[in-house]
Amino acid sequence: MAKIVIIGASTGGLPAAYEIKALVGAAHVVTVISNTETFHFVPSNPWVGVGWRTKKDISFPLKPYLEKKGIRFIAEAA
Question: What are the tens digits of pLDDT across the range 1-45?
């Protein structure tokens, strides 16, 4: 059994975790470590700044989505 750790859960780490878990399957453990519990889609920040979106529109809690895919999640700085 391999233990794979991905540090960071933004626009690089989150898709990497999903793809790696799909490749290695249930026999291996994939863990994501992030210094925040929430994914925030940074490219949409200008929309928030001009009032076209709210922070809630461009953010979501990471844990439920990662766990749904069988990926462990640790919300602490690495």
Answer: 999 999 999 999 999 999 999 999 999 999 999 999 999 999 999
Residue 7's alpha-carbon distances to 14, 33, 48, 59, 63, in angstroms, are 10, 5, 26, 19, 14
For the chain, the residue count is 78
pTM of the model: 0.88
Q: DSSP secondary-structure letter at 10?
A: S
